[in-house]
Amino acid sequence: MTQLFEQFSPVSKSDWLEKIEKDLKGKSTESLNLNIEKDLNISPFAHADDWNEAPSPILQGRNTNNWEIGLRILVSDLKTANGEALIHLSGGAKAICFELENNLQEQDLKILLHGIQLEWISVHFIINQNFQINFLTAFSGYLVSQKYDPHKISCSISINEDHFALNTGTRKLEDFLSFLPLAKLFTVRIKPASGDDQSVIEELAVALATGNRYIDQMMLYGMNIRDYHQRIQFSLYSIGDNYFLNIARIRALKILWQQVLQAWNKKILAKTPIAVHLNTYTQTDNEHYNKIKATAQAMAAIVGGIDQLFIYPSDQFKNETGSPFAQRIAINIQHLMQLESYMDRVVDPGAGSYYIENLTMELASQVWKRFQSMA
Q1: Cα 188–Cα 189–Cα 194 angle in degrees, nearest 5
Q2: Which residues does residue 155 pair with via DSSP β-bridges, in sequence order?
Q3: CB within 8 Å of 260: residues ≥ 6 apart
Q4: Class for domain 68-374, per CATH?
Q5: Within 10 A of 364 (CB to CB), how many other CB atoms are there?
Q6: CA 286 → CA 38, 167, 171, 282, 291, distances in Å?
Q7: Which residues contact 7 (CB under 8 A, 6 or more apart)?
Q8: pLDDT tens per residue, the chain (375 residues)?
Q9: Every domain of the chain and the residues it spans
Q10: 315-320, long-range: CB < 8 A, 24+ apart
């Protein structure tokens, strides 16, 4: 019995381009290139001939493409925020991100986290720079008072509009890292340098530089990189409108962060923790269109391979929190992708697509050059 592909003659890239040029009727193939930035001009015609050998999927120890369905809650009233969290957890959310306006004490956390089983979900906090150590003290005290096993608490801390300074309470910080072995206490927030996709090289290069500074400070304060590099996570707020570029920027970030880590220690083979926040900067004043756009952005983030996904309500442009219905839809979008589309089952689903692979590697190359120029 003959194999299916044996019945077809192989087509080289030159044969393919010749046919494309004929169909374009005098228009150049270069006119169809994706012009992202000055140094990033990608042809849409990728082919197996572009590769000496097939590129490997980006696994980083993953055996599924599972991600945590997340929801962000702005905390102004503790009881209200707690009620919102419980509703969305019962609706299928697996990660709750509390954005705090004020410093919270242990008694405040008892109200905010009442009824939430922290050993079964992940919990994330966006806080202000000036109360990072105080908050960690209160959170640790809360876990002890509620008799939680800290080894089962998956959590992260992100500093709003700033980064965690290791020179503030370093000894105390090491105590928290030992107490909470699953905690990500160093978050690199990747925000758009402009309102479109034209700044992706700069965004990723700055993110690498920030992560590298964390490692540099760890080494300076005697913290072993092999013990602490997995405490760094990336929070991506710069997902734009270009579907394939969104996939490539996440895949490129994984490749490049591994490259940074191995420059410090060749024995490190690490997973790159990435959370994506689909926030309001790409939203329009049409909430129905925003739902469609968020779905495409979410799909790209998932194909790229992320750990948590937070879709902000489609009507958030009307107020800071959005309506309960829009919050529910933001969670249901992810349910559809997990429970009906099974997008959590294939590790690195973009692998093997010559166009995505080419875009990933070209982007990674340009970002690495920009990162090196910052050193």
Answers
A1: 135
A2: 123
A3: 208, 211, 212, 215
A4: alpha beta
A5: 20
A6: 32, 45, 49, 11, 9
A7: none
A8: 567 777 888 889 999 888 998 999 888 888 888 888 887 889 989 998 888 888 899 999 999 999 999 999 999 999 999 999 999 999 999 999 999 988 899 999 999 999 999 999 999 999 987 778 889 999 999 999 999 999 999 999 998 765 555 555 566 788 899 999 999 999 999 987 655 556 899 999 999 999 999 999 888 888 888 889 999 999 999 898 899 999 999 999 999 999 999 999 988 988 999 999 998 888 889 999 999 999 999 999 999 999 999 999 999 888 888 899 999 999 999 999 999 999 999 999 999 999 999 999 999 999 999 999 986
A9: 68-374
A10: 315/287, 315/290, 316/280, 316/283, 317/280, 317/283, 317/284, 317/285, 317/287, 317/290, 318/287, 320/74
Nearest to 88 by CA among 341, 299, 321, 350: 321
Note whether 275 and 298 are within 8 A (CB).
Answer: no
**Residue 132 burial (CB count, 10 A):** 23
Q: Please choose, from the candidates 176, 285, 185, the residue with its C-alpha nearest in 3D space to the C-alpha of residue 229.
A: 185
**What radius of gyration, in Å, describes the C-alpha atoms of the chain?**
22
| Single-letter amino acid, residue 8 | F
Pair of tokens at residue 140? 């640790």
Provide the token pair at 363. 């982007």
35: tokens are: 């012009």
Edge-to-edge strand list for the sheet holding 122-127: 154-159, 122-127, 95-100, 68-75, 308-311, 274-278, 232-236, 186-190
Is-contact 317 77, C-beta < 8 A?
no
Max CA distance (Å), the chain:
74
Residue 97 burial (CB count, 10 A): 23
Please tell me the distance from the alpha carbon of residue 265 to that of residue 166, in angstroms, as a whole number: 21
Hey, is 345 helix, strand or coil? coil
